[in-house]
Amino acid sequence: MFKKLVRAFKRPRDPAGYVYYAKLVAPQGVFYKIGFTKKKTLVERFAFGGFGDEKLLQKQILFTFHSRGWDAEQDLLDHFGRLRAFGKYSNKPDQPLPGRGQSELFFVDVLGLDSDLYGLSARDREQIHSQAAEVASGCLLAAVLAPFTMILAVFFALATVVSLFQENKRPITVPRRPRHPEKIQQILDDLAAESSNCTLQRTASGSR
Predict the structure, then answer these.
(1) Around Cβ 15, how many Cβ atoms within 10 Å?
(2) CA–CA distance from 80 to each of 21, 54, 56, 87, 111 (Å)?
């Protein structure tokens, strides 16, 4: 109840605006940020105040206008609150965006919208196939040697496992997109639909 009262008090008279989700790269590491702004572009929002925050932007993942944008942002932040990088009221001067949205930073892709994380490059696939071939050949060799000497078989099996952790041959794991509760997924779907509508409108107006 108290949380609802605080939120109602903070709610702007006009909640319409842009909801955004961005990937940032700072000296301290990679971060994802959920936010809301009245600015027309993400660069304009991060450049506000002259702190040079726009230099941290690596990728704009989502930037879409919504009639209840502030509410959508708050719903997302409330849901993912426990995953915040620095806490809800953080203001650490040695970390990114102190006093300028630091509490909206996350270490991981909480929305699951960074498509770069969920696909494999040709190099990744080649490395996986190579590792699989190494494992298969090592197991086959161990099987052949087993009748003659158990010690030698174990040696080759261990060598195969160790080889997977050598430089440039670390096992590749592809992260899975997070699955969200229906309410959160609906917000993301609504934002995606709004983004598509804006793109179509810009395309139509540009073709006139």
Answers:
(1) 16
(2) 13, 24, 22, 11, 9
Note the pLDDT of residue 195. 82
Nearest by Cα to 24 from 93, 86, 94, 114: 114
Sign of the Cα pseudo-torsion (115, 120, 121, 122, in order): negative
Q: 């502030």: which residue's tokens?
A: 70
Determine contact, residues 145/152, Cβ cutoff 8 Å.
yes
Q: What are the average pLDDT values for consecutive 10-residue runs of the chain, which has 208 residues? A: 85 96 97 98 96 97 97 97 95 96 98 90 65 58 46 44 48 79 96 75 53
Residues 6+ apart with CB under 8 A from 119: 174
Whether residue 34 contacts residue 66, with contact meaning beta carbons closer than 8 Å, is answered with no
104 residue type, one letter: E
**pLDDT value at residue 129:** 63
CA–CA separation, 80 vs 87, rounded Å?
Answer: 11
Torsions phi, psi for 18 (to 5 deg): -100, 125
